[in-house]
Amino acid sequence: MQIKIVTIGVYGFDESSFFEALCDAGVDTFCDIRSRRGVRGSTYAFANSIRLQTRLAEFGIRYIYRKDLGPTKAVREKQAAADKATKTAKRKRTALGKAFIEAYHTECLTAFEPQSLLDELESDAKVVALFCVETAPEACHRSLVADKLAQTFNLEVEDILP
């Protein structure tokens, strides 16, 4: 099975443009890799787990949740400390901090078996979206997961941006 990986965050999209972007990219499988599957505020309420899964189903897009790929609270705290030190608002971050990257690799990616994700896919899966919330993939752990999958299986990765 040869698949393509796309990454997408919710910030910067509205509900309509978010689902349009997924459909335009040909996404057939949506992999939620957030630790917490909710987003505060009404603007992004469509990305809260139950509403999100319902809308994806309407578009014929399968949903899988991989909590093991969501950063732990301790890992997130390392990024929060880096953001505080640089006075960067979470939604304005353009890159991950070194401490976060190291901790994420240690706590999440070391134990992650990329084949386990492929094994979870339906046999007809062609385009898999890795989803979290940040706008810039470089500011989100989804880029680290995408890199691991790309390197392990020589897969193409495309970032979907608002």
Describe the 3D structure.
The chain is of the alpha/beta class and 162 residues long. The protein has a single domain, classed as Protein-Tyrosine Phosphatase, Chain A (Alpha-Beta Complex), CATH 3.90.190. It has six helices and five strands, in the order βαβαβαααβαβ. It has helices at 15-24, 49-58, 73-86, 98-109, 114-120, 142-153; strands spanning 4-8, 29-32, 62-65, 127-131, 156-160. The protein has a five-stranded parallel sheet, with helices on both faces. α2 (49-58) links the parallel β2 (29-32) and β3. The chain is globular. It starts with a strand and ends with a strand. The model has no long low-confidence stretch (mean pLDDT 94).
Secondary-structure content class: alpha/beta
Silhouette: globular
Please compute the radius of gyration using only Cα atoms.
Answer: 15 Å
CATH topology: Protein-Tyrosine Phosphatase, Chain A
Give me the number of helical elements: 6
Strand content: 5-15%
* Mean pLDDT value: 94
Query: What pattern of helices and strands is seen along the backbone?
Result: EHEHEHHHEHE
Percent helix among the residues? 40-55%
CATH architecture: Alpha-Beta Complex
Number of β-strand runs: 5
Total domain modules: 1
Q: What topology, given as strand order, has the largest sheet?
A: 3-2-4-1-5
| CATH domain class | Alpha Beta
**Main beta-sheet annotation:** 5 strands, parallel
Alpha carbon gap, first and last residue:
29 Å
Poorly predicted tracts of residues: none
How is the secondary structure organized here?
Blueprint: E1 4-8, H1 15-24, E2 29-32, H2 49-58, E3 62-65, H3 73-86, H4 98-109, H5 114-120, E4 127-131, H6 142-153, E5 156-160
Helix pairs in contact: 3-4
